[in-house]
User: Fold this.
Amino acid sequence: MSIYLRLSLFSLMLSFMMMACQTNQNTIDTLDAGVSSALAEQRANQLEDVRYQLFFNIPDSLTVDIPASLELRFSLKDTKQPVILDFKVDSSHILGIRGEERAVDYRFEKGHIVIPTDDLKVGENNFKIKFIAGDLSLNRSEEYLYTLFVPDRAATAFPCFDQPDIKARYSLQLEVPAAWSAVGNGPLERKLERSNRNVFIFKESAPISTYLFAFAAGLLRSESRVRNGRNMTMYFRETDDEKVAANVEAIFDLHASAITWLENYTGIPYPFEKFDFALFPTFQYGGMEHVGAVFYRESSLFLDESATDNQKLGRASLIAHETAHMWFGDLVTMQWFNDVWLKEVFANFMAAKIVNPSFPDINHQLRFLLAHQPAAYGEDRSGGSHPIQQKLENLKDAGTLYGRIIYQKAPVVMRQLEALTGEDVFQEGLQEYLRSFSFGNATWDDLIGIFDKKTAQDLKTWSQVWVKEAGMPIFQSSLNSANGTTNIDIQQGMQAKSGAYWPEYTELILFTPDSMIRLPVQMLGASTSLTLPSGISENTTYLLNGSDMSYGYFTLTPESQAFLLANLASIADPLVRGAGWMALYEECIRHQVPAKTLFTSLMGALPSEQEPLNRQNMLSYLGTIFWQFFSAEERQMVAPELESILWDQLLAAKDVSAKSAYFQGFQDIALSTGATEQLYAVWSGALPIVGLPFSESNRIDLACELALRLPDKASAILAQQLDDIKNPDRRKRLAFIRPALSADQGTRDAFFESLKLAENRHYEPWVASALAYLHHPLRASEAEKYILPSLELMEEIQTTGDIFFPRQWVTATLSGHQSATAAKIVQQFLAERPNYPYRLRNKILMGADMLLRNQAVAD
Assistant:
C-alpha cells in the first residue's frame, strides 16, 4: 500500500472519528434542561433492565447535608450515544463516578450527567456514584422527611433516568437516627442496629417508574393490621390517641375493601409485594400512590368526631383512588406525561365504583355528579380551559398539566365511554389493557385500540372531541308543538376547535302537573330532535342535564328557570334537585339568573333539604355567592337572615354530620356582631353546642376566623389558641399562619415578603391557607398590593413547588377579590406578557375566572 493511499485512509478514518465525536458532542450541546421528548425517546430505545441500588445517610439536623450513593446497573443495546442521567442539582453535589474499571470522565450540563461512549459497552453496565442528595423533593422537617418525586422530581434528589417509560427495580438502604422508623417501596429485609444510628435495608422493588419510588423516615408512630390475609402497616404523626382509635379500623377496612374490589374487577391479584401507607401533617396532596408506601395528608384520613358524611365519603374515595392506582398507574403506567390524565381518570372512576358497597345509604349517582361536574366546570368554563390530553414537549413542565379537568372532567368522559361500550365490554377492555401492559407502559391510543376491536362505535371521533380538544359543549333547547306532537329541539351552541360537535348522552326531565318524566337523550352533531310523549305541551318545564354523566352548559328557558327556583325543594328525586341547583348556578355564573334571586331560593330551600350531599353543595353555593357576588353592603344586608337560618338548622339537626355542616356554613359567613359573638362564645367554651363535638382542629379553624372578624382581639385569641394546642405539628402550623391573621398591616406585609423566598414556602398546604387568610374578602382592599408580586412569582412557584401549588397559590391570591382594581392587575399582567408560559397563563385565568366574570358585568 502506497504512503499516499495509507494517508488517504488515515484521513478518511480521522474524518469518520471526528464525525462520530461531533455526533456525540452535538447530543451534549443540544441538551435541554429537564427531559425533552427527544431525550426520553433516545433513552427508551437505548436502555434495558435498569436497576438502582441507593443508600441515603439521613442526619437528625436540617442543616446537615445527606450523603448518598448509587450503584446503577443497566443494559445497553448499542454505544452510539452517550448515556445521559438526570440530576437537577449544583455540580458540587456529585462527589465521584466510577465505572467497573476506572473513574468516569463525565460531563455535567443543564442538570444532566453525561457518561461518554468510551465508558460504555453493549450489554450490562455498572456505575457507582457518590453524591450529596438534593433537598428539593425530600420534604425535610425536624423530626421526619418524606419524598415526593411526581412528576419529574426524582432527579432533584438522586441521579436517574427520570421519565415514566424507563421502569426500574430499586434497592434501598436508609441510615437514620436510632429513634426513627422508615418505610420504602419494598418490604423491610433487615434492620441493622448501631449505637445511635440504625440502617433499614429494603428488598428490591418490582419494576416501577421514578416518580413512584419513595421513602420516608422519622419519629413516626405505627399501627399494623391483617385484612384478608394481608398485613398492612400505617405510619403517622398524630398524637391524639382517641382520634387515632376512632379512625384506625375504618382506615384499614377501607384499604382492604378497595383492594378486594379491584382484584375482582380487574381479574389481577394485588400486583406488588406489600401494601403500607404513611400519613404526614404537611403532605402537599390528599394522597400519592407510591408502590407499597402510599403517602397521605394526615388530616385527610384522621377525621374529627364531627366529620360530615361528605368528609367520610371523601376519605373513602381518596383511599379508593390511591389504591386503584396500584393497577392503573403503577402496574400499567402512561408512556409520557401527556397521558398523566389516564392514570388519574381510572383512579377517580374506579374510586366512585369502589366506595358504593361501603356506603349503602349514599346516593351514588348524586355523589358522582357533585364530586365531578361542579369542580370541572370551574376550570372548563374559564379562559384557561385545555384538553384532557395535553401536549408536553419537556417533562420539566409536566407539573402544569394537573388540574380539575384531569381529575373531575375525565371521569365523566370515562363514564360516557362506559355507556358507549356497555359495562361488560368496558370491563373486558380494561382487563385486556392491564394484562397486555403489566409492569410496562401504555398510551390512551393503546386503550382506545383495544376498545375499538370490541365495539362498533366511532370511538376515534368521540375521543378526538372529548379527550384531545379543549372546552365544554353548550346546549340550547326548546319545545315546539305541531300537528298534535311536541318535540324538543336541541342545538349545540358552539363547536370544538376542529369543527366537531360533542356527542353526549343525557337524560331529559319533564315536569308535568302530575309527574316527572325521564327520557334518555343521545345528542349527536349540531342538533338533535326528540318527539315527546303525548300530553306534553310546549309550555312544559324541563331540565336537560338530568343524568350523572351530563356534561356542559345546559341553558334553561325562562319558564324552566322560574319553575326550578320556585319548586326544586319540593322535588322528590335528590339527583334531580342536585342537577337543578347545578344548572341554576351555571346560569348565575353566566349572569342569566341574578345572584340575589338564586341566593334567596337557596336560603328558602335549605331547611327542607335532607340529602347530605345536596345540603353540602347548597351551602357551598351560598358561601360563594355571599363572598364573590355580593358587595360588602349587600353582605351586611343578607347576613342576618342567613345566619339565623344556619344557626336554627344547626340546633335542630339530629345527627353530627348535619350539625357539623351547618356550623361550618355558619362559621364561613358569620358577619354580624351577634353571629361573631356566638362564634367567640363557642370558641371560648361559654356556648357548647349539644351533639357537636369540638376537636383541636375545629378550635384552631374557628380561632383563625375570629381573628379576621375581631381584629382588636386577634392577638389574644391566637396566643391563647397556641397555648392550648397539644399536637406539636398543629402548633407549628398555626405559628406559621399567625402573621397572616394579624390585625397589623405591617406584620402581614412582612409575612408576604417572607413568602418570596422559596425556603419559606416549604410547607405548601400551610402557605395556601395563610394566603387565603391574607386575601380574605374582609381584607381584600388591603391585600390588593400583593396580587402583582404574587403573579410575578408564578414561574418560580412552578419551578420550586409541587404540582398543585401554582394553582393553589393563584387561587388563594385571587378568590377573595372582586374589585375592578384587582381585575385590572390580572388583565394587565397577562397583556404585558404575550409570551408568558401558556399553561401558567391558564392557571391564572382559571383562578381569576370569577373575578373577571363579575368585573365584565360591572363594566
User: Anything to note?
Assistant: The first strand starts at residue 47 and ends at 57.
